[in-house]
Automatic annotation (TrEMBL):
Residues 64-280, 377-540, 801-1026, 1039-1225 form the FANCI solenoid domain. Pfam families: FANCI_HD1, FANCI_HD2, FANCI_S1, FANCI_S1-cap, FANCI_S2, FANCI_S3, FANCI_S4. GO terms for biological process: DNA repair. Residues 1-53 form the FANCI solenoid 1 cap domain. Residues 284-369, 554-782 form the FANCI helical domain. Signal peptide: none annotated. This is Fanconi anemia group I protein isoform X1. The gene is FANCI. GO terms for molecular function: DNA polymerase binding.
């Protein structure tokens, strides 16, 4: 029969074939075709002949053709056909689809849809036909019967696609089905059907099946729905990551982890590559990605997650998007840090956003994830890390200092962003070996090329990188050596930081060490002063870190500098014996510096002490060097006065006078080295005492002789009496100033030396007092000569030669030592209030230096642990002195010139509390524990930070109450302000809502409510404290409203005929304090609340754009959104606050200007909120009632009064100002409000 059909088909006309096929039954025809196809014999030719003989123009032929089509589809699905046969049949079927009538196409398509939704497909080979069928159907213009109605071909196609996407898809055909839609012309709506269906199927597939499906989906997105595709992919992987993190977070879930982490990360990496490839082919996809993520940036960062960040970093490899992506990531990071900062300072916003996302954590998660072969992300990470460090690193400010603050919670968003950049680079360096060379090169390039700008952040990063793996970095030694060539041209501070950072490399790489020594030797003889100072800094660092055999261990030395460095000792190469020769060579080089400028010598003297402690075997060489230098300026004859040749320390060149030898620093260095050597080394070398006794005994004798002769010397012996010229405009004056400074420094050094060797001898303490009197006479003369306008100690430098440890010991002896045997000798020092005042002043000076620079001068000045211990000891003493002898008791005795000692102690406590919170935030508990006078540690139970802080707070509360209860003429403004500042600092350590915090808030509120005080600074300090406490538990708008009523009551109304009733909510607010003090304070707080409300409105708008606010049918449901309610309440209360102030007769100047500016901000914020409601709420639901009330209230209670206030200000100015220009300038502020 098959031969018959084929022979008929070969004829010129198809009439015979058509007649023959009409006679054959459908079943016979399908059986014949099936047999031929399975055998693989002439199936294609037979099928072609059958189609030729069954034209679609005849209904019977079309129906038979449909039957044949169905049979072929079953054959294809059966899997019984050979591959070639199946391909041939498929091709023929594709060609014949367009000949079908529309109605049969609908039936054919329905068969496919039913088969797919019912899971009847066996191998899916027939699916290649479906896109052709749907395409053909879409071209039919006539109406076709579909279901119970009639639709056009295009509408039928749409319904079929909808039905297909509504049904169930077998997992194994999802990719094929998605790919199929590429060949079908689709409308935007149809694309959305398909995309939504595919995205829903994601969660039901195996992880390995998702990358090819995503690829097909991305290809399909070129037809539309790009945003939905990207959002769906990002949301799916974000959810997977969250699930995985939750599964890993608890041990009980460890057995239930559904996806291995390694597999998940590799799949994510593949997906990212697919998306990047798709963006390269379709830039609109990339633009859509950025548009979507920028939109979520305004809301709650819902689409910003580790996966989307990794995707963006990969997209940076496409040049067109590189700059845009990095700008977006930069702005997202800084915005997120600002959001977190705002949350940190506002309790009511914290309650609305308990789990605000942290982008920095996500980015660091991306760094960790990149270990799973995410090479396409790594380069973007490195670039982004450097972008953050470059953009947000410390900046140089006008006076040349660096605009940096400390670590901890007080850091500004810019500094957090810079630190994040450093962390990205450090973690990337640790994980990716291939990128290490590039990171190191870029860091070193920035250190060299940006030396004029602050680069501490790059030096810190370099130090962390080298600490991590000095041995690994040996391969990069050429770059480090190349950097050394620029040392002579870099600032000294940069050189010190750089050499400290590379120090571990010097221990493991001979080539790096040798290169550095060559560079330093050249620099020693350079013409630039900074180059020579850099050489000294480098050599000192080498001496500190290459230990000589027999030197004390680190624990014995209690070293400060370099404690944080990683020590790498390769003993086979650099053993201690070899180090000795190396160090002695360096010492010879350093001795040549003693003939150079004062700055170079000074650096050497400041560094020798640390060298000695780190390398005690160099003591002989160091001390002999110092001794020979001192001999040049020492008068050996015991009767010669003065004992030192000050003239030799000064160099005169023409009209210019310079300091040649910083003799005070030399003596200070000798004194500290000698004290350390005698206390640490000598006891361990008793058997060698005869050999070692020489130099230190000789130095002791010299210092003793200098002390005795300094006491005997009069100022005339130094030619520094009152008649001497101290002006800075003459050579003699400059010389005398230098000499005076040297003598004062020497006196301080000798005071510390004599106290150290005194063993509480009365004679020695008398010597100390005599040295102090010499110091004080010179200080008084310099102050007198500098002019009456300057305060006490005005032209003294902000530093002292006394070490911080000595200041601590001295204050303890003066104020706390109650040992009977010390009583008589200490009475000598205690008899001089001036000396005790001086001791406390030096302590204040040291703390101020710590706050400004992060370290103090003198021994252990760079060691945070030692500084912290000294701060604890000093604070304990100052606290005892202040609470034991209050200022009122001290002043009841004889009055002396200078500050009250107790007041100085309180000032010291205030400065130390500020410094501890700035630099030692994590150690606040240890600090408070150290202040506790009880020594019963073994009996002590665990006490919280809040309880310890509350104990100290109570002491200062008592002091303040005593001060407030004193007579008005006895009120001490300075002390009251200091107490308010101390209480503010301590209150920051209280845990909000704890019993101690509640007590503090209640007490502060009571003080402000019941105590009237006309001192403006104290009033501002206490009200600021009240605001700080109030903000920690709720919004301050209620407090602002109450204060505004008080201000209005005391200052009166802008309408002179209106008598305002005084509310007296807070007694601290009175006629003297109401303006400008309290008025400016409350306006600044109101401004901050407005900023917070603006932030909330921005969040609301962002969430509205993403439909995060649930759509509700009723108005009541809409108004229940907590963010909206909070926003309206804040603005409503602020409105009543401004309602009071615009009626107040404020004095001209800052109060009026600030109020007008804040009113403008208030109206801007109200406008933003109104626009939000107009955008979100539909006419059917209307605006919420509370919002309507707010708008009406602004119109009735604020706007009319604003115009009255503007008229009041203009009338007041027109009466008082004579200059028309000034009048116009002043009216500029009100004009802004009128425009609102």
């Amino acid at each position: 029969m098959d031969q018959k059909i084929l022979s008929l088909a070969a004829e010129k006309t198809a009439d015979g074939l058509q007649e023959f096929l009409q006679i054959l039954k459908e079943d016979d025809l399908t059986d014949l075709l099936q047999n031929q196809a399975v055998r693989g014999k002439t199936a294609g030719a037979l099928l072609k002949a059958i189609f030729k003989g069954l034209p679609c123009s005849e209904e019977a032929g079309a129906l038979k053709r449909l039957k044949i089509y169905s049979c072929c589809i079953q054959l294809l699905e059966s899997g019984d056909l050979q591959k070639e046969v199946a391909s041939e049949i498929t091709g023929l079927l594709m060609l014949e689809v367009h000949r079908f009538p529309g109605q049969l196409l609908v039936e054919l398509a329905n068969e496919f849809v039913s088969a797919i939704n019912e899971g009847k497909l066996t191998n899916g080979k027939s699916l290649e036909l479906l896109p052709i069928i749907l395409t053909a159907l879409g071209t039919k213009k006539e109406n076709l019967t579909y279901g119970k109605g009639e639709l056009s071909g295009e509408e039928c196609k749409k319904q079929l696609i909808n039905t297909l996407c509504s049904g169930r898809w077998d997992h194994q055909y999802v990719i094929q089905l998605t790919s199929m839609f590429k060949a079908v012309p689709l409308t935007i709506e149809e694309v959305e059907f398909v995309v939504e269906k595919v995205l829903k199927v994601f969660s039901k597939l195996n992880l390995q099946e998702i990358p090819p499906l995503v690829y097909q989906l991305l290809v399909l997105s070129s037809k539309g729905s790009r945003k939905r595709v990207l959002v769906g992919i990002i949301a799916f992987f974000n959810k997977l990551d969250q699930q995985h993190n939750e599964e890993q977070s608890g041990d009980e879930y460890l057995d239930l982890i559904t996806v291995p982490l390694d597999e998940l990360r590799h799949v994510e990496g593949t997906i990212i590559l697919h998306i990047v490839f798709a963006i390269k082919l379709d830039f609109e996809l990339g633009r859509e990605l950025l548009r979507h993520l920028k939109a979520t940036q305004q809301g709650d960062f819902s689409s910003i997650c580790p996966f989307s960040i990794a995707l963006l970093l990969s997209v940076t490899r496409i040049q067109r998007f590189e700059e845009q992506v990095f700008d977006f990531l930069k702005s997202s990071v800084i915005k997120n840090f600002k959001d977190l900062q705002l949350l940190q300072g506002s309790k009511y916003i914290q309650s609305l956003f308990p789990n605000e996302c942290c982008i920095s954590t996500m980015i660091l998660e991306v760094v960790n994830n990149s270990v799973h072969s995410w090479d396409h992300v790594t380069q973007g990470l490195v670039e982004f890390g450097f972008i953050l460090m470059d953009s947000y690193g410390p900046k140089k400010i006008l006076d040349g200092k660096t605009a940096e603050t400390s670590s901890g919670l007080s850091r500004m968003p810019n500094q957090h962003a810079c630190k994040l950049g450093a962390n990205i680079l450090l973690e990337t360096f640790k994980i990716h070996e291939m990128i290490r060379q590039e990171i190191l090169e870029q860091v070193l390039n920035r250190v060299v090329t940006r030396a004029s700008s602050p680069i501490n952040h790059f030096l810190d990063l370099l130090s962390d990188i080298i600490k991590y793996s000095p041995l690994v970095l040996q391969s990069c030694s050429s770059k480090v050596i190349e950097t050394f060539d620029y040392l002579s041209f870099l600032p000294v501070q940069t050189v010190q930081g750089l050499l400290k950072a590379v120090q571990p490399l010097l221990k493991v790489s001979m080539s790096i060490r040798d290169s550095l020594i060559l560079v330093l030797r050249k620099a020693m003889f350079a013409s630039q002063l900074d180059a020579r100072k850099s050489a000294v800094a480098g050599f000192l660092l080498l001496l500190k870190n290459f230990k000589v055999l027999g030197s004390l261990s680190s624990s014995q030395c209690s070293q400060s500098i370099g404690v944080s460095q990683v020590h790498v000792d390769i003993h086979s190469r650099y053993n201690s014996v070899a180090n000795e020769t190396f160090c002695l060579e360096i010492m010879d080089s350093l001795k040549r510096c003693l003939g150079q400028q004062a700055d170079v010598r000074l650096m050497l003297y400041e560094g020798f002490y640390d060298v000695l402690r780190r390398n005690s075997q160099l003591a002989n060489s160091v001390m002999q060097t110092l001794l020979s230098q001192l001999k040049q300026f020492y008068e050996p004859e015991p009767d010669v006065l003065p004992p030192l040749k000050l003239e030799a320390c000064i160099l005169t060149q023409g009209d210019q006078v310079f300091l040649q030898e910083p003799l005070d620093y030399l003596l200070c260095c000798i004194q500290h080295c000698l004290a350390w050597y005698k206390s640490r080394v000598v006891p361990l070398q008793q058997e060698e005492e005869e050999e070692e006794e020489g130099f230190y005994q000789y130095l002791d004798d010299m210092l003793e002789s200098i002390t005795n002769r300094m006491i005997k010397s009069e100022l005339e012996d130094f030619e520094l009496d009152k008649s001497a010229d101290f002006s800075q405009s003459t050579g003699i004056g400059i010389k005398n100033n230098i000499c005076a400074s040297l003598v004062m420094g020497i006196c301080e050094v000798l005071i510390e030396y004599n106290f150290f060797i005194s063993n509480f001898s009365k004679t020695k303490f008398e010597t100390i007092l005599s040295l102090f009197m010499c110091y004080k006479k010179l200080s008084d003369i310099l102050n007198e000569k500098s002019g009456k306008g300057k305060t006490k100690m005005a032209n003294r430098p902000t530093d002292s030669f006394l070490s911080m440890k000595f200041v601590s010991d001295l204050l303890t002896a003066l104020f706390r030592d109650s040992t009977q045997s010390h009583e008589e000798s200490l009475s000598v020092l205690r008899s001089s209030n001036e000396f005790m005042r001086y001791a406390v002043n030096v302590a204040l000076m040291k703390v101020q230096q710590l706050k400004e620079t992060g370290h103090v001068s003198g021994p252990d000045g760079q060691n945070p642990e030692k500084i912290f211990q000294n701060l604890c000891d000093i604070t304990r003493v100052l606290l005892w002195r202040y609470t034991s002898i209050p200022t009122s008791v001290e002043e009841s005795g004889k009055r002396e010139k200078g500050k009250n000692i107790s007041l100085l102690c309180l000032e010291g406590i205030q400065k130390i509390l500020s410094a501890v919170q700035q630099f030692y935030q994590p150690k606040c508990y240890q600090f408070l524990k150290a202040l506790d006078a009880t020594d019963k540690e073994e009996e002590e139970e665990e006490v919280s930070v809040s309880e310890r802080a509350a104990f100290q707070i109570r002491q200062f509360q008592r002091s303040l109450l005593n001060l407030l209860s004193s007579q008005e003429e006895d009120f001490k403004s300075k002390e009251a302000l200091l107490l308010a500042t101390v209480l503010t600092s301590l209150s920051k350590l209280l845990k909000p809502i704890s019993a101690e915090f509640v007590q503090m808030l209640s007490w502060t509120s009571k003080i402000c409510t019941e105590n009237s005080c006309e001192d403006a600074s104290f009033c501002k300090g206490m009200l600021s404290l009240l605001f700080n406490l109030d903000v920690s538990c709720k919004s301050p708008v209620g407090l602002l409203r109450d204060l505004s009523q008080d201000i209005h009551g005391h200052l009166g109304d802008i309408d002179e005929d209106v008598e305002v009733e005084k509310t007296n909510n807070f007694a601290l607010v009175n006629l003297k304090t109401a303006a400008p003090t309290v008025c400016l304070l409350v306006l600044s707080k109101a401004e901050k609340v407005l900023e917070e409300v603006d932030w909330l409105i921005t969040k609301l708008k962002g969430q509205a754009n993403h439909k995060i606010i649930p759509e509700a049918s009723s108005q009541a449901a809409l108004t229940n959104h907590p963010m909206e309610k909070t926003t309206i309440i804040q603005l409503g209360t602020l409105l009543t606050f401004f309602h009071e102030l615009v009626q107040t007769a404020l004095p001209s100047g800052s109060c009026v200007d600030t109020l007008l500016k804040d009113l403008g901000k208030m109206y801007t914020t109200l406008t933003a909120l109104v626009k939000y409601y107009l955008q979100v709420y539909q006419p059917s639901t209307g605006i919420p009632k509370n919002m309507e009330k707010l708008v009406k209230l602004s119109g009735s209670h604020l706007t009319p009064l604003c115009y009255s206030f503007i008229s009041y200000v203009q009338n007041k100015h027109s009466r008082s100002l004579k200059c028309t220009g000034e009048k116009e300038k002043t009216a500029a502020g009100p004009t802004a409000i009128v425009s609102c």
